[in-house]
UniProtKB/TrEMBL annotation:
PANTHER family named in the record: QUINONE OXIDOREDUCTASE PIG3, QUINONE OXIDOREDUCTASE PIG3-RELATED
UniProt-recorded name of the protein: NAD(P)H quinone oxidoreductase
SUPFAM superfamilies according to UniProt: GroES-like (SSF50129), NAD(P)-binding Rossmann-fold domains (SSF51735)
Residue intervals of the Enoyl reductase (ER) domain: 10-312
Length: 315
C-alpha cells in the first residue's frame, strides 16, 4: 500500500510517499481502504520534531474515512466508516492508504455524507461534542463562550451548541471572520483584537460554560464566566502559560477542568454524522488536496490563513 511518511524531522518536504506492507488485521480489527484524511496541528509538530514520535519512519494522521474491504466484526465490505483514532490503528495514521482499525473505533457514515464531510467533522466534532456535553454538561437555554470560532473545533462547536438550544458567543481575529461566524449561528462574535472578551461577556450576563481553546486567555475566560460557571480547557493555541486572578476565580466559584486528549464515544460520533446527513450542521472544508500534496497542505495550515479543515484525498 501507499503511505505518506517522514523518516527524519524537518520542513514539509520531508513528507514522502512510500510503498509499505499492507496491515494484517487482528481478529477484533476491520481492514479499511482510506479515502480521506485531514491535516491537524499535531501533524506539523510531529513532522518538525517539536513533538517527537516514538519511531521513524512515521505515518501521520489522526483521523480517516474510508471503505471496509472485507466482512468483519459486524461490518460489511463496502460500508463507509470513520475513525477519529487513526493514529492508533495498525498500518500507521490516516496518511496511509489502508488501516486495520479496532471495530470499536469505527463510526458508520450515513449514505448521504461524503468522506470529505465525515473526516472534516471527525476529530474536531468529537472534541467539540466531548467538551460541550460529556464534560461541559451543556443544557438547553444556557450561555456558552467558545474561543477561536474559526478553528475546526470552534466552528463545529458553535453549530452543535446552537442545535442544543444554547446562546453562543465566540471570538474572531478580523471583521471578515466575524461575519462568517455569525452565518454559522453565533449570537455574539467578539473581535478579540478590538475588545476585551471577558468584559463584553461580563456586561452581557456572563457564560455558564466556556470552551477554552487558547489557554493564554484563561484570565479573560474567568472574567467572562458567570458565577458558578464551568471552563473546559481543551487547547493551547495561544501558548501553555497564563496569569490569572485567583481571588476573582475563588469568589466566583468557577470550575476549570482540563479536557485532556478529548474524544466523545463512537455512538456520539454517529450522532453528529447523522446531524450532517440532516444538514443540521456543516463541517467547514477549507481545501481538498490529493494525498500527494501533503507537504503543500502542511504549508497552508502553518500559514494560518484558512478557515476550516484541510482534507487530503486518496483517489
Amino acid at each position: 500500500m501507499k503511505a505518506i511518511q517522514f523518516s527524519h524531522y524537518g520542513d514539509p518536504d520531508v513528507l514522502q510517499i512510500q510503498e509499505v506492507a499492507d496491515p494484517i488485521p487482528a481478529p477484533d480489527e476491520v481492514l479499511i481502504e482510506v479515502k480521506a484524511t485531514t491535516v491537524n496541528r499535531l501533524d506539523l509538530f510531529q513532522r518538525n520534531g517539536s513533538r517527537p514520535v516514538e519511531k521513524l519512519p512515521f505515518t501521520p494522521g489522526l483521523e480517516a474515512a474510508g471503505v471496509v474491504l472485507q466482512d468483519s466484526n459486524n461490518f460489511k465490505a463496502g460500508d463507509h466508516v470513520l475513525t477519529t483514532r487513526a493514529s492508533q490503528a495498525r498500518g500507521g495514521g490516516g496518511y496511509a492508504s489502508k488501516l486495520a482499525v479496532p471495530a470499536r473505533d469505527l463510526a458508520r457514515i450515513p449514505a448521504n455524507v461524503s468522506f470529505e464531510q465525515a473526516v472534516a467533522a471527525g476529530l474536531t466534532a468529537s472534541t467539540a461534542w466531548g467538551s460541550l456535553f460529556d464534560l461541559g454538561n451543556l443544557q438547553k437555554g444556557e450561555r456558552v463562550l467558545i474561543w477561536a470560532g474559526s478553528s475546526g473545533v470552534g466552528s463545529i462547536g458553535i453549530q452543535l451548541a446552537k442545535q442544543a438550544g444554547a446562546w453562543v458567543a465566540t471570538t474572531a481575529s478580523s471583521e471578515e471572520r466575524v461575519d462568517a461566524l455569525k452565518q454559522l449561528g453565533a449570537d455574539l462574535v467578539i473581535n478579540h483584537r478590538q475588545q476585551s472578551v471577558g468584559k463584553v461577556l461580563q456586561e452581557t450576563g456572563g457564560a455558564n460554560l466556556v470552551i477554552e481553546l487558547v489557554s493564554s486567555s484563561l484570565q479573560e475566560s474567568l472574567q467572562a464566566a458567570a458565577p458558578g460557571g464551568r471552563i473546559i480547557l481543551i487547547g493551547n493555541l495561544g501558548g501553555k502559560e497564563a496569569t490569572v486572578d485567583t481571588q476573582a476565580w475563588r469568589l466566583k466559584r468557577v470550575s476549570v477542568l482540563g479536557g485532556g486528549q478529548l474524544h466523545t464515544s463512537v455512538a456520539n460520533e454517529e450522532k453528529f454524522l447523522q446531524l450532517i446527513a440532516e444538514k443540521a450542521i456543516t463541517p467547514l472544508v477549507a481545501r481538498t488536496l490529493p494525498i500527494e500534496q501533503a507537504a503543500e497542505a502542511h504549508r497552508l495550515l502553518d500559514a494560518g490563513e484558512l478557515q476550516g479543515k484541510i482534507v487530503l484525498r486518496y483517489v
